[in-house]
Specification:
625 residues, alpha/beta, 3 domains, five-stranded mixed sheet, 31 strands
């Protein structure tokens, strides 16, 4: 009798705390959290997980999920839930959006569990280790519930993958032993060079049965790098168990730290003299990260078991140093927050005056979840279609990209294409309502490039005026800085994006799902050398390409890659067209590539899926549910 009474009190207390009855699967999640407090998986007396705890909501929006619903875990960074001095938005304003987000997930057929996360954020460069601790939690949740995936809200550690493989590099410019082999003098050479193929790779968190813990390297590690021309006597290479000999070679190394080391090659150095390189080669890939199950695929590679995406505004939430005053006492922004002309005695760099701003970060997150809700519940006029923009040699055209995007829904209307687009066309593209948008342009971690042939005055007008960029010109006894896009060229970056956001010119366009086909769009600056919580991780000036698009350009989710490559995700939009969510499109790319036996021997490209990730919300679909 006493045991039943205690059980009744426990249940009542739990209901009072959360204000609703949880599904059976998510109740298990609640019971797991305490076990991960103080988790220290490498036993160095520094916890990777300080504390996981339920995010408490009030009784206003009840959880309507049931035990048959697939589970979505929403992990929220603890830092975001504290009050911010000087912020117009309180922590409760963000929490209320998260509570509404739970209702939206329930309406989409998911059970949703929200967890406050206090993770390691010290000076040690151990992002991968902390990520592995999180992964252990997800593995346990997946064993006890129908875990569909996880959405990370805030700044969380990210995985970096370094990969090295043995291959015959055919007809490529190279300098070996100080001699150039370029153009008409190109030669095939042996290449065994480590590359940071994915400075951001959510496959590590998503592949729950992979061997990622066994290949993690925390401390700096020197990795061999070899480029070699075969001796003339060698006619067929590389061959299994052969001895490869060379007298013209580069023998060096690169150092990496805090990374997942995929060593595909398998070679052994042999004793040699007189400046000769001798290697015993085995040509089969080792697939050290791939689980036993995934090794059975025609093209062995890791495949996501759950879906993952990130909603992190920290790197783009920057504002100008408010203490700056020019020689007339003016700041770079006027009383209405608009850029204005300033004059100084010495040169300044406005971009270098940008500082991380937690209050602005909260505003971007609140704006994002408002936009997310609107995207789920309504479609603005003419938005049920696709739009695509392209510029740059060797890339998919806007017309072809639209054909690819249109597979995302049978209900889409006529597409809008912007081929060979200028930066002005880019702005017109952004102002075109479309639920699913595609970009094809040469890119890097900070920006994407379009044609610079346009009228600057028209560009400034289309962006709403008052550009968040200043033109420098010498004047008597100093310099004048005038808001202007005169030096912008064809670069689409945070100068353009922030101007569009501040002038609110996309307020009637509605949210969009984006697929960006450019290289390194999803690469965080500084990822190779700094931990995720360091100010040098991601651009100090806010020039983070992917997040800039998501938060400033009405994005609700964006798929892009963190590597220089030229692939468009196969099967992504077809999967969407079957009524699936955006994250399932991402997973489909992995599944299709792993099933393609023709890729198995393409050692340089057979795991090209790994650098692709999603930021924003993977649960969304191109059309209303």
């Amino acid at each position: 009798m006493r045991m039943g009474f205690v059980l009744l009190i426990s249940v009542v207390s739990w209901l009072l705390l959360f204000g609703h009855v949880e599904a059976q699967g998510t109740d298990r999640v609640t019971r797991m959290l305490e076990r991960y407090t103080g988790l220290d998986i490498d036993s160095d007396e520094t916890a990777e997980v300080n504390r996981l705890s339920p995010l408490e909501f009030g009784v206003g929006v009840a959880d309507t999920s049931n035990e048959n619903d697939e589970l979505v875990l929403v992990l929220v960074e603890e830092r975001l839930l504290s009050e911010i001095p000087g912020s117009e938005l309180r922590a409760a304003d963000l929490v209320s959006r998260l509570e509404r987000y739970r209702a939206d997930l329930n309406a989409a057929g998911y059970a949703a569990r929200f967890v406050r996360c206090d993770l390691y954020a010290g000076a040690e460069h151990q992002d991968g280790l902390t990520l592995l601790a999180m992964r252990r939690f997800l593995i346990e949740v997946a064993k006890q519930s129908k875990l569909k995936g996880v959405v990370l809200v805030g700044s969380f550690p990210e995985a970096m993958i370094v990969r090295r493989w043995l291959w015959r590099r055919e007809q490529w410019d190279v300098t070996i032993a100080g001699k150039d082999y370029k153009g008409a003098n190109q030669k095939d050479y042996l290449r065994i060079v480590p590359e940071a193929v994915a400075p951001r790779a959510d496959i590590v968190l998503a592949d729950l049965d992979g061997n990622w813990e066994s290949i993690y390297a925390k401390k700096p590690m020197e990795v061999e790098s070899i480029e070699a021309l075969p001796d003339d006597k060698i006619k067929e290479w590389p061959k299994d168990e052969m001895v490869f000999e060379s007298t013209a070679f580069n023998d060096s190394s690169s150092t990496f730290e805090d990374f997942f080391w995929i060593q595909e090659d398998n070679y052994r150095r042999l004793e040699s003299k007189n400046g000769k390189l001798r290697l015993k080669l085995r040509v089969a890939q080792q697939h050290s990260e791939v689980s036993k199950r995934d090794r059975t695929h025609p093209n062995p590679m890791a495949v996501p078991d759950i879906l993952v995406s990130r909603i992190n505004a920290r790197q783009v939430a920057v504002n100008l140093d408010s203490s700056f005053r020019d020689r007339n006492g003016k700041s770079l922004l006027d009383e209405n927050g608009k850029p204005q002309i300033v004059e100084t005695a010495a040169k300044i760099n406005p971009a270098a005056m940008m500082q991380r701003d937690p209050a602005f970060e909260r505003k971007l997150l609140v704006d994002y979840f408002d936009r997310n809700h609107e995207y789920r519940t309504s479609i603005v006029a003419d938005a049920n279609r696709t739009a695509a923009l392209s510029y740059g040699a060797g890339l998919i055209s806007a017309e072809s990209l639209n054909e690819y995007l249109k597979k995302g829904s049978s209900s889409f209307g006529d597409s809008v294409s912007f081929p060979d687009g200028s930066l002005l066309d880019y702005v017109h593209f952004l102002k075109t309502p479309a639920r699913l948008k595609g970009l094809s342009a040469h890119s890097n971690p900070w920006n994407s490039s379009y044609s610079g042939s346009y009228d600057v005055v028209e560009l400034e007008s289309q962006c709403g005026g008052a550009p968040w960029r200043w033109k420098e010109e010498p004047i008597a006894n100093g310099f004048r800085y005038t808001p202007s896009f005169k030096a912008q060229g064809g670069v689409a970056d945070s100068y353009i994006h922030r101007t569009i956001y501040e002038n609110d010119i996309l307020n009637k366009v509605g949210g969009s799902l984006y697929i960006h086909n450019g290289c390194e769009v999803n690469t965080p600056e500084g990822a190779l050398n700094h931990p995720y919580n360091d100010d040098r991780y991601g651009s100090r000036g806010g020039f983070q390409n992917a997040e800039s698009i998501l938060f400033f350009l009405n994005g609700v989710a964006l798929a892009s890659r963190a590597k220089t490559f030229y692939d468009t995700p196969r099967g992504f939009t077809e999967k969407l067209g079957e009524g699936n969510c955006f994250g399932e499109g991402w997973r489909a790319y992995f599944e299709i590539e792993s099933s393609d036996a023709a890729l198995a021997d393409n050692v340089a490209g057979n795991k090209r899926t790994y650098p692709w990730s999603i930021i924003g919300d993977w649960t969304l679909t191109p059309t209303l549910r």
